[in-house]
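Why do we care about 3D structure at all? Because function follows from shape, and shape follows, mostly, from sequence. That is the central idea of this module. The next example makes it concrete: a single protein chain, its amino acid sequence, and then its structure expressed as tokens.
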Amino acid sequence: MKLKKLLMTTGLTFGLVVMFALTSFAGKWHWGDYGWWYELSDGSYAKNGLWSIDGEKYAFDSHGWMISNDWFQGTKGWYYCTNSGAVARNQWVGNYYMGSDGIMLTNTWTPDGYYVNELGEYDPSMGGGNKDEEISEYYTIDGNWDNRDQSGYSKDNRVDLWINVDPGDAYLATMDFGLYMSSGTPYSLYDSVNPNGDSLKIATVDGLNWGCRSTISDKWYDMTYNGKDTITLYWRSTAWTSSGKLIFKRRSGGRLLNSWDSGSGGVG
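And the structure:
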């Protein structure tokens, strides 16, 4: 993530907070004016760091609001808070790999055989193949995605995507979209010109190339999935995007479905 690198090289300007001991707390979630906050059993609330709640780690700012869809620095390293707020673990977030404890790996090899440098970025010069193209593991497509990394978009002006896989078939799923803007009206409803709120039924025979059919307009779309962390969706009209496509990165979700030796091919 370019945002991540920028934060590391500009003195951490977004106001870092101190990480508390990760003790599990009994309490209750609440929704407020600025998002979610967590009330502890003694009537106080989680704030100023990482807290372990119901088996997941969550980060809270100094006011007690849960952090989501953003990076967070604790005393032991960088974490990524997913759309649900839970810290990402054992997965790629863009070109950065989050370890089993949720901390971004640096200066080491990832479990799937790629090298990340001192900034945590994937370094193709160290070998291990092309992370974005070589497929040795295949993850289910379900989870939360957005296109903030695509040119012309940002974390404050992006298209969100939620995918739910059919319980009986990992190659059948439903995609739902929403337009998020930090100002204005988020999650706009579907219309024929700007289909941010569309809902698609999707299916594939090889796991990589998907057919997508709108449940609203009955139109078809094309989509590719790299098997791990990138979806490219091609809409029927280029009128509302300069490139005629949306490129989504996974923010949370997905599970390992298949793995094989490099070069063996096939997803099924």
